[in-house]
Amino acid sequence: MGINFSEVKFSYYIPRKKQNIRFALNNINLNIAETGELIALVGHTGSGKSTLVQLMNALLMPTSGKIEIMNETITHKSKLKPLRRKIGLVFQFPEYQIFETTVLKDIAFGPANFGIKNPEGKAKEIAKLMGIEELLERSPFTLSGGQLRKVAISGILASNPDILILDEPTVGLDPNAKRELLNILMNLHQCSNKTIVIITHDMEVVSRYFNRVIVLKEGEIIYDGSKYDLLMKDDLYETYNLNYPETIRILRAIKNRFNVNVDVNQHTIEDAYREIRKAFEIA
Amino acid sequence: MNNKLVLGQYYDADSWLHRLDPRTKLVTIFLVLISLFLLKEIYSLLIALGLVLILLLTSKIPFAKFIASLKAMTMILFLMVFFQILFNRGSDVIYSFEFILTWINLFIGVVLFLLYFYIGKFLKKLRFLQFLLVFFLIFFMQTIIISPFVITKYNIVVYRDSLTTSLVVILRILSLIFVSSLLTLTTKPADLNMGLESLFKPLKYIGIKVSIFTMMISITLRFIPTLFLEAQKILKAQASRGVDFKESKLKQKVTQIISLLLPMFVISIRKAYDLADAMEVRGYIPGAERTSINILKFRFSDVVVFFIVISILTGLIMLNVMKYAI
């Protein structure tokens, strides 16, 4: 179950001379379980992250290789609508997709398309979960950026997908709205044990909330595994084009400056604080 | 992906036609189109077509491109010939066909036409040839299949006049299409726009500000690819919310179309506001005198082309006038 990629290659354009082909994604082998995973997809701009998530939702077809979504191999003949209900994809800047006259109708648009019974009831339920109940009767064009983002995510959540994929959901949000949104997502993960995949550039978010990290570089997966192993590496910037999150950067600096023995792999401010105190109390 | 977004028909090559000033091309091609209408004999039209073909060969553009521009016209040309034969009556009879329409023929004819439309789903190529085949088969059937259920008997008479007129028209339209597609194939839309602006400049004396209109055209040309990309984004975003024209019911499809159109309008209007602000910040004032980064310059070859085309046109006008004078 879940999503399975084997030897997947993808190119946006197939030139007449086959040897000139440029793959946006190359040799992707990937396995995402249906439940219980929290995955962060990171990588440089243009490394193929957005292309990868579009393949996960069968919005693009692989040039070669095999993609299985919920045990079904994706071909041009597959029925895509039921699959897209199971895999919810929230695009970057999802505000653009909002079109209805009220927030309620817009959230109910997805479930109505997928033939789910009582779409408006479902929409109200999700709005309560996302904390936007008081907005339901307003026109979406009067809302602020952060509110719109929540409405758009609710629109996907309302069809109750098994796996939720979000393309840079926190971009352009203020720190408060960002924390609030991530907390809602984590809540959702804890309540229903849904797999959540998120594309982000923000290493703080990765370090704070996620377990599994997939690093893409020039269309290939160069790292797939736990965040602890990734952030232990010394060549994070050179090889992976990533920054250390704030907590690890401070702990590394302390370790080098004072020559004390600290475990740098701490991901919350509280843990980092405890680690520093421990190190200096012993000294 | 970017290759799909190339606008218009422009074909990039380096020929003398590509290098000509767009104003020269606009004016001379207009004059050539007029001269084509002054030709009335088959032989003179044949010579004109020959000259046009030489032009096409020197443009370094693959001939298939010109053939492609003819495609849209084949059906119209065919209908024109058909009606010429049906209604144009002259004196010289070339051949007279006798047809017998029976109920069986009518039935087979209808079936053939339905088959033609049905095949279109699978075989997209050579549609016109398929149509011709069906068309002639239907008429051929009426000469041989004889059955008792006769509806009417009728004759179609082919006259010499109808054939010559259709030939003249075909030759003329061929040349017209080739020449006009030569303009769009060798000139970039932006250059064409600049040429038009320069040609219509004198309109400012009667209070029309041409630069506003050409600015509108160039903004439109510039934003078609951008909006196309936006449309693709919206299409994908809505597809992940269950918009699917293949698998949805008709009632759902109506709201689904709105879900694509409305965000497109919103984005267009938003982009228009942003662009207007950005232009004003950089000092754009509608209708004010502006200099251009690309300046059009007449060269010696432009003058030669003008000279040749104008002499051809005046020669033709002289000939026509002389014919009536005598």
In short:
Chain A is an alpha/beta fold and 283 residues long.
**Secondary structure tally, helices of chain B:** 12
What strand line-up does the widest sheet of chain A have?
6-7-8-3-9-10
Determine Rg of chain B (CA atoms, Å): 27 Å
Strand numbers in spatial order across the main sheet of chain B: 1-2
Q: Shape of chain B, please?
A: flat
Alpha-beta content class of chain A:
alpha/beta
Contiguous uncertain segments of 5+ residues of chain B:
1-6
What distance separates the N and C termini of chain B? 63 Å
Distance between the ends of chain A: 51 Å
Number of strands of chain A: 10
Protein topology:
The complex is a heterodimer of chains A (283) and B (326).
Chain A lengths: L2 E8 L14 E8 L5 E6 L5 H8 L7 E6 L2 E2 L7 H6 E4 L12 H11 L5 H12 L14 H13 L5 E5 L7 H18 L2 E5 L3 H7 L2 E6 L2 E7 H6 L3 H5 L5 H13 L10 H14 L1
Parallel strand pairs in A: 3-8, 3-9, 6-7, 7-8
Antiparallel strand pairs in A: 1-2, 1-4, 4-5, 9-10
Helix pairs in contact in A: 3-4, 3-5, 4-5
Chain B lengths: L15 H4 L2 H17 L3 H17 L4 H8 L3 H14 L5 E10 H17 L7 H18 L5 E10 H27 L2 H11 L10 H30 L10 H32 L18 H26 L1
Helix pairs in contact in B: 2-8, 2-9, 2-12, 3-8, 5-8, 6-7, 9-10, 10-11
